[in-house]
Amino acid sequence: MLVLRRADVTDVLSGREAEIIDLVADTYRSHDEGKTSLPHSTFLRFPEERHSRDRIIGLPAYTGGEHPVAGMKWIASFPGNVAAGTERASASILLNSLSDGRPMALVEGAVISAKRTAASAALAARELTRQSPTSSVLLVGCGVINLEILRFLSVALPDLNEAALYDTDPARAEAFAERCAREVPSVKAHPVGELAGALAEHRLISLATTAAEPHLDLSACGPDTTVLHVSLRDLTAQTVLGATNVVDDTDHVCRERTSLHLAEIATGGREFVDAEIGGLLRGTAAVTREPGRPVVYSPFGLGVLDIALAEYVRREAGRDGRGIRVDDFLP
User: Fold this and answer.
1) Whole-prediction pTM value?
2) Distance (Å, rounded) from C-alpha 14 to C-alpha 293?
3) Within 10 Å of residue 275's Cβ, how many Cβ atoms?
4) Mean pLDDT throughout 22-32?
5) Distance (Å, rounded) from C-alpha 46 to C-alpha 179?
6) What's the CATH fold of domain 120-298?
7) Superfamily of 2-112+303-325 according to CATH
8) 85 falls in which pLDDT band (50, 70, 90)?
9) Which of 50, 133, 196, 325 has the maximal Cβ count within 10 Å?
């Protein structure tokens, strides 16, 4: 068994944004071709009121291709951690051998989860704005995920040079701007105090908040707006129904009271989903922009991405001699 700590994962993935985007794109293509196995995620919730917003999610997955791999991500989301000064999410990924089924690696998963999420968002932004490139983005929610999204957008969108930052806590937005300046210096990041005006000004918007219920519509947005709806529960059902919707997997995203699940409940169907990202990448699906309808990308966050990226880390770490080997983990 190989144990890969956060430092090992970070060292392997640092500066490899372009490679990670390519890996995510390849995995989406494989998923669209039916070369993956992806059961529904399992959500562990707790009966106590003090844990009403907390959850732990299990994502089992298999992906084929050049480097086939099976495994599971176990990720905890405790939003109260943010106020306490610690990260909201923590995760572990277990990879199993396909020759005998035995566990072969335990990988710290929070870094992988953040980077695959950001790579998915940046890939979608590149594909959905290809006909009309943008030079700015509005980041709503100043946390780990939007920092990674900005990092990956700076690679995927060569024209990007400005990031407006909005958070319900202005001090958090100010501190976030300083961190962006250090870590993504090619993009000028600055806080904004009023959300509606910022929505109108920017054609690319990334929503990465801890919202548990819909709280936002896109009526303030201008024409030709693309929204990366990463946190999945920000937009009202009516807003979803008034948009052109792209997802990673329709069946997975219409669950657990996401905004799209609420739209399905309201209409009794899923006809409002226009395309899946794998189909766009393979050329088997297309998106047509309509005046007054924003394009919204809502990725559920497929376990196949975590497993594929964790396997990439395992291979690279093995070449470099990283990690801790536990030879007597199994008999």
Assistant:
1) 0.93
2) 37
3) 20
4) 97
5) 34
6) Rossmann fold (3.40.50)
7) ornithine cyclodeaminase, domain 1 (3.30.1780.10)
8) confident
9) 133
Q: In the chain, what is the straight-line distance between the N-terminal and C-terminal CA atoms, in Å?
A: 11
What is the C-alpha separation between 311 and 288, in angstroms, rounded? 36
Per-residue pLDDT tens digits for 198-209: 999 999 999 999
Provide the H-helix boundaries in 157-205: 170-183, 195-201
Q: Write the burial class of residue 128 (CB in 10 Å: 0-12 exposed, 13-18 middle, 19+ buried).
A: buried
Mean pLDDT, residues 16-31: 98
Higher pLDDT, 241 or 79: 241
Whether the CB-CB separation of 69 and 308 falls below 8 Å is answered with yes
* pLDDT tens digits for range 129-177: 999 999 999 999 999 999 999 999 999 999 999 999 999 999 999 999 9
Does residue 180 contact residue 160 with C-beta atoms inside 8 Å?
no
Residue found by looking up tokens 């190989």 in the block:
2
- The CA distance from 82 to 222, in Å, is 32
- What DSSP assignment string belongs to 109-129? -HHHHHHHHHHHHHHHHHHHT
Helix (H, G, I), strand (E, B) or coil at 199: helix
The domain locations on the chain are: 2-112+303-325, 120-298
Q: Kindly state the DSSP code that residue 143 receives in the 8-state scheme.
A: S
DSSP for 44-62, written as a single string: E--SSGGGTT-EEEEEEEE
Q: What is the band of 88 on the pLDDT scale with cuts at 50, 70, 90?
A: confident
Residue 34 has pLDDT above 90, yes or no: yes
